[in-house]
Amino acid sequence: MPAPTITAAPPPPLRSQNPATFTSLAEAFVDWMAGVPDEFNALAAYLVALTGGGGAIAGSAWEMSTSRILGRVSASTGAIEELTAAQVKTLLAIAVGDVTGLQVALDAKKASAPSIQSVTSSATVTPTFSDDMVKITAQAAGLTLANPTGTAVPGWGMAIRIKDNGTARAISYGTQYRAIGVTLPTTTVISKTLYLGMIYNADDTKWDVMAVAQEA
Fold first, then answer.
1. Spatial contact of 206 and 197, defined as CB atoms under 8 Å apart
2. Contact 166, 189 (CB under 8 A)
3. Quick one: pLDDT band at residue 185, thresholds 50, 70, 90?
């Protein structure tokens, strides 16, 4: 039978993308990661079958039949050589180790959650870069978004969610906020949620706001 294949990875999600695009790509990427361990295991089983032996990867019993496995182990280029049983076992052990590591990473990804800075109301809100989102749930005064603090990583983003307490509130910004292709809102809309999506530009020391979404 033909050798099992490993499905190519889909495009990964990026924090600079808008929420809808990020969510769609993230779901596709996690779905791909969930299937990769099974594909690796199928490939490992196929390679075991090629040797004609029935020993487990970690076991001591491994017999080569008339079937042969060819590859390179002594150099990355050059002539193809016949692999010994020990070399095949080593390669499969590495593959299984990679699958185990991938599963651990996948489990960690599923268990992780965004870090959120929660504010009910404050005249000045200072985002912290270690957080993924700042949410302001019932703003009861004019709002100033101060320049974020912390060690920002170029290319990483942050979202800010704002909602007033039933009265429209003015919004002003620190010197590091810069609109790119959008207009920075200067007020809330009564009892409506507002999202700002921004990414850090280290070259200009600016938080480039590239997405503004106002609840209808």
1. no
2. no
3. very high
Q: Under 8 Å CB-to-CB from 56, ≥6 apart: which residues? A: none
DSSP annotation of 94: H
DSSP state of 147: P
Average pLDDT over residues 180-198: 96
Q: Report which of 108, 131, 176, 127 is spatially closest to residue 15, judged by C-alpha positions.
A: 131
The architecture in CATH of the region 116-214 reads: Sandwich (2.60)
Kindly state the tokens that stand for 203: 């070259």
Is the distance from CB of 209 to CB of 198 less than 8 angstroms?
Answer: yes
CB of 194 within 8 A of CB of 182? Answer: no
The model's pTM: 0.52
Average pLDDT over residues 33-44: 78
Place of tokens 């791909």: 32
Q: What is the pLDDT of residues 125-169, one digit of tens each?
A: 999 988 889 999 999 999 999 999 988 888 888 999 999 999 999
| HSE toward the beta carbon, residue 43, CA cutoff 13 A | 19
Rg of the chain taking only CA atoms, in angstroms: 26
Please list the residue range(s) of the chain that carry CATH number 2.60.120.
Answer: 116-214
Query: Do the beta carbons of residue 27 and residue 16 sit within 8 Å?
Result: no
Task: Give the position of tokens 């800010």.
Answer: 160
